[in-house]
Amino acid sequence: MIVSDVNHADPFIWMEATPTHCKSGEKVRLFTNRFAPFERFSITLHFPDGHEEKAPGKKIKSNSVGKVWITLDTSGLDPGSYQLIIEGQRSQLKAIPTLVIDPPTAE
Length: 107
What we know:
Elements: E1 12-13, E2 16-18, E3 21-23, E4 27-32, E5 41-46, E6 52-54, E7 68-73, E8 80-88, E9 94-95, E10 98-102
Parallel strand pairs: 1-9, 3-10
Antiparallel strand pairs: 2-4, 4-7, 5-6, 5-8, 8-9, 8-10
C-alpha cells in the first residue's frame, strides 16, 4: 500500500499472473479484483519483438464485484518476455502483467 498526501488517479491496476515464468504450452492463470462490476475487456498480447496482437473475439467480463479470471494457453509462444494488456472498456483501466516464456530445457 502506498500512502500519500496527494490525490492521484492512476489508470493502471494490479493483476496477478501464475506462474510468471513457464515453458511454451503451459497454462497461465491471471486474476484481478480491481475492475468495475460486469465490465468487458479488450486483451492485447505484446510480443518480445514489439508487435501486438488483439486476442480473438472472446467475450470476457468481470463478475458482480469486479473480479476476473483469465486462463492463457501459451502454446506456440517463443521464448521471451510478453506483456498482456487487459483494458476495461468502460473504466479504461489497464492491467499489464508480464509473462516470461523460458527456453526449452536440453534433454
